[in-house]
Amino acid sequence: MTDPTDILRTTFGFSGFRGVQHSVVERVLAGERTLAVMPTGAGKSLCYQLPAVAMAGTCVVVSPLIALMHDQLRAAEAVGIRAATLTSVDDNRAETVARFRAGELDLLYVAPERASSGHFRDLLGQAKLALFAIDEAHCVSEWGHDFRPDYRLLRPLLDAFPDVPRLALTATADAHTRADILDQLGIPRDGLIVAGFDRPNIRYAISPRSNTTKQLSDIIAENPGPGIVYAQTRAQTEKLAEALARTGRPTRAYHAGLDPAVRARNQADFVASEDMVICATVAFGMGIDKPDVRFVAHAGTPKSIEAYYQETGRAGRDGDPAVAHLFWGADDFARARQRIGEVEPARQAGERARLTALGALVETAGCRRAILLRHFGEDPPESCGNCDNCLHPPKAVDASVTAQKFLSA
Ligand code: ADP
Ligand code: MG
Question: Model pTM greater than 0.90?
């Protein structure tokens, strides 16, 4: 077998592995069942694409979205990997099946509903398999935030090929969800690899909301670069864009209800700007590549620690110092509790656990980063030196109303 570092250079054109990629790839090449929890952008795809090139046979990749699969396919083909998708929208399915049978594919992308059909299982028996890769593996867990019942049907397929290694990948999995993924997919506990969640250049700060406009204006005054203000409603994005314009900075609103042309223009203006503040709903940010965002401010509590991490993670992608400031209110938690009461009973325990974790993050007198990183399964130092509590340790007694009261009510 060719040295993985050579394949990394020659096929992918990268000079080295990033973070835990190397350990994940080594485990996979050694045939060990593995769950890799790595943040978005950390390079999860490489963890199965490289073994797919290195190992004899085809790597079967289960992925939940056809659009995602087609993106991956294009990227793989661009570096000369022999890949195909097998989905309902592909009209070259017969050709793909023939290529698979002939051993001409490194990667075969399929949706979970196809993967669970008996027909597909027969097909897989007709050629050599290198690896099963299960992308977005949190979809297998009811504890996860994006449960897909079809993912539960994967286990019999995996078990029909017990000698084929399996690699599950996800960006978002708290301890409970991770344990569930391991159980559901038959991966041993020591097969878990988690890392790379720390964003040391982001300074985290969290405080109770009092006068939102004033608080946000102060953040804007302290941070001259581009920033995102996450509002709680569409109406609030527009109100804040207007109110915060009084700081003298250019502002824009962004939400899914805006006229598409206006929305696109506001986004383009923000991406091009060096000092704009965009007041947005959480619809904003996905797929936007603006490395120099200097601050992300939340006018209300996000729906989970995962969401908080994802949204604050849009700050400081260039590695320069950036700030994430969350302003929370007890009413955010009251509303969240009410919403949980309305979801289907099977999901309430998971939702409640997510809310409790969030409550612990806003309430802590300790290091925010430590709570975040522990949530993602890392083992951080007690103090990071770059969050509000580490920089300005709070007094022992905090007179403000705590979220815990509302969580335990
Ligand atoms: P994820 O699925 O974890 O969100 P991707 O697999 O889409 O991340 O990778 C994110 C980006 O990082 C891609 O552009 C990929 O080409 C790049 N990348 C992955 N591994 C490396 C590496 N070792 N060196 C440099 N770039 C890398
Ligand atoms: Mg990915």
Answer: no
